[in-house]
Fold this protein.
Amino acid sequence: MQGVEGFMYPNEVELQWSVLIVLYPFLTGLVAGAFILASLERVFNVEAVKPTYRLALLTALAFLLVAPLPLQLHLGHPERSFEMYLTPHSTSAMAMFGFVYLWYLMAVLVLEIWLDYRRDIVVLSQTTTGLTRLIYRALTLGSSNISEHALHIDDRVGWVITLIGIPSAFLLHGYVGFIFGSIKANPWWSTPLMPVVFIFSAMVSGIAAVMLLYMLLTWLRKQTIDMRCVDTIAQYLFYTFLIDFTLEMLDLIHRIYESDESFRSLDFMVHTKLYVSHILVQIILGTITPILLLASTQVLKISDMARKRIYATAGCLTMIGIFAMRWNVVIGGQLFSKSFLGYTTYKMGLVTREGLLTAIVLTLLPLVILWGLVKLLPPWPEKSPAVPGASAAH
């Protein structure tokens, strides 16, 4: 077989996982990262990021609602996915995702948002009219007590849920890295650092996404951006990015030092088929460049306007870099032969079930959902309605 350079078996030519499987960990990473940012204010009392607390929760919910759709479209029979609930299998990492997803969606994220917005929902159910009034009344779930004592209980319970939600967010996204890292037959994926790298890259993407959304929505609302808030978010983004990049470099150094029988094949692939997406896009454009941009705001005195532009540029490049990382993991791990002698290419269709157009729609869909959530539950403090004839504070 050593003389058959470039040979691939017929069953290795077709890639099993497409761009939709790239999109899935990207979306779940945004969920986990946004929730971690929200927890900074609720659990760790970082008051500077308070203007983004509710926006981060709504962002996490919007992306979480769409996160399973790439998997559903990838399945030939998506209706079979419900079997994981009817016939649970505790030894299957894939099957357990369904239970982790439901736990995080219903018991953590939705409940925390409801507790945080309960006062506003009750007031809006009393002050609005028509269909909107019926929607808010349904959202009260029959709970109309907004006394000081009741709101204090909401706050305490919400704090506990947020505390539980932090490891739940890690579990939600870390399990994706666990699935890839536990595939021993694929040396591109098989590393114990894979779940940790996925978790920190999720934090990076989620923090960057909320920062960009806050700046964009504030600008669209013609309001003033809270620079103390954005500066603090950028600091957390910078430090988290440094840890994420360090872990990826540690994994790379370990592979180089180990240099097993697969190293030559993987090294060739990185310098050819994945050179643009891995070296240029992920590392140089999507990692080193935003880290340097964020570092410049930490060591240099830069005007507010210039910092806004740097944060916006760094945030966009960060999102590109994290998506490229997901691409290189999912697609890159399928481009080489199991015999390490041949390589294939991934051809993405345009208008197919797992094509480019579908991926674009699934990427934009959470933003549409977020727009609806923001309209229904405004995250801005100045939009919080007042209690008719009372002054109860939240």
Observations:
- The mean pLDDT is 86.
- The two ends are 71 Å apart (CA to CA).
- Residues 20-182+349-394 form one domain.
- Residues 93-127 form the longest helix (35 residues).
